[in-house]
Amino acid sequence: MTAALLPAWRGVRRLLAVRLDNLGDVLMTTPALAAVRQALPHAHVTLLASPAGAALQPHLPDVDEVAVFEAPWVQSACTAEQAGPATAALAARLAAGRFDAAIVFTVCTQSALPMATVLLLAGIPLRLAHCRENPYHLLSDWVRDRDTPGDGLRHEVQRQLDLVAAVGMAPPSAGWRGRPAAALRFVPQPGDGERLAARLRRAGVDPGAPYFVVHPGASAASRRYPAARFAQAAQAVAEAGGGHAIVVGGAGEADLVEAARPAAAPSTALVGGLSLGELAALIGGARVTLCNNSGPAHVAAALGAPVVVLYALTNPQHTPWLAPARVLSHEVPCRHCLRSVCPMGHHACLLGVPAGEVAAAAVQLMGAHPAAARREAGRPACKESR
C-alpha cells in the first residue's frame, strides 16, 4: 500500500514536471501526472517538455501549462554553442516561476543530474528523480535507479508511477474515460473529428466508411519496419475486409508513405498537415493501426484503439500500455542495444517478421475490437462493409 504524501510535499502549490524527450514518452508519463493531480488537486502543474512533447498541450488533462525547452543533454536541436546560454536562461526562467517542487521523469538510460542542477540553481526546494549514483544535494528526494535494459525491466509507465509513489503519490484510483485508472491519458478536442472528416472528404475518402491506418515512420532508423512490407501487409488487410488503407506520415516522409501504400487495394496518402488531434481522431476511428514503435503507437494506446506495432528490440520499456495491441518482433541475440541505428546492420529484429504475420495480427485485432475507441475520439462509428 502506498504511503501518505510526505509532509514536505503537502504544501506544494506550484509544481514543475520535467519530461524532455519524445511525444510518446510524455504520453507514457500521463498516469504519473494523474497521480500528481490526485495527490495535489489544487496545485498548478507546469510541464517542461521538448517541442515534440509540447504538441500534446491541449490533450493533457492533468497539466495546467506547458513550457518548451530543447535540452542539450538529450537528443535535440540545441547546438554546443547554444547549450550554455540556453541552460542559464532556463534556470532564470524557472526561478521566476517560483515553483515549490519539481519532478524529473527520465528513462533509465538518461541522467537526471543536468536537470537537477538547473532546478537547484532555480531555487526549487523539492526535487524528485531517479538517479543511479548518489546525487547528494542535487536532489531532495532521491529514488535509486536500479533499472538496466534487459528482460524484466519495468515498463516506462510503471517506472514513473513508482517514482511519484516514492513521495506518497498513489496511483490513479478512478477509471479514465471508460478505461483503466492507470491508462494513458489523451483528451480529444472539440472539432478534431470534424476537421479530420473534412480533410478526408477533400482527399476523396468517405469518412464514414471503414478504414485502417498505416504509419510507416519512426524517429530512429533502427525502429523502422520496411515500407514495402507495410505495403504488403496493408494489401492483405484490405483483402480481408479492413476497408480503405490510409497511409500517413510527416511532411518529409512523402517517399516513405508512398512506398507503404498497398499495390492494388484502395488507399490514400496523407503527408503532413494533420494536427495531433486529427491524427488521434484518425487512429481512434480506424479498424486497426499498423505502425512502428513510435508516437502513434502510444496515441492508439491512450485511446484504447487496436494497434499492431512492429517493435524493434532496442528497448523493452515502451510497448503499448493497457491497449488492444499485438507487438511483433523477431528474437535476436543483440536485443536491448538502445541504438538509433542498427549496430549489426541486419535489422533482424524487424526483418524477421514477415508481412503475412503483420496482416494476420491486424485481422485478429479487427475481429476482437471492431469499433474500439471511436466514441473516445468523438467520431461516429464507421459503416461496416457488406
Automatic annotation (TrEMBL):
Alphabetized CDD domains for the sequence: GT9_LPS_heptosyltransferase
Pfam families attached to this UniProt entry: Glyco_transf_9
Top-level taxon of the source organism: Bacteria
Keyword Isomerase: no
A GO-annotated cellular component: cytosol
EC annotation from Swiss-Prot or TrEMBL: 2.4.-.-
Any one Gene Ontology molecular-function term assigned to this protein's record: ADP-heptose-lipopolysaccharide heptosyltransferase activity
GO biological process, one term: lipopolysaccharide core region biosynthetic process
UniProt cross-references to InterPro entries, sorted A to Z: Glyco_trans_9, LPS_LOS_Heptosyltrfase
Keyword flag Acyltransferase: no
Keywords: Glycosyltransferase, Transferase
Protein name (record): Glycosyltransferase family 9 protein
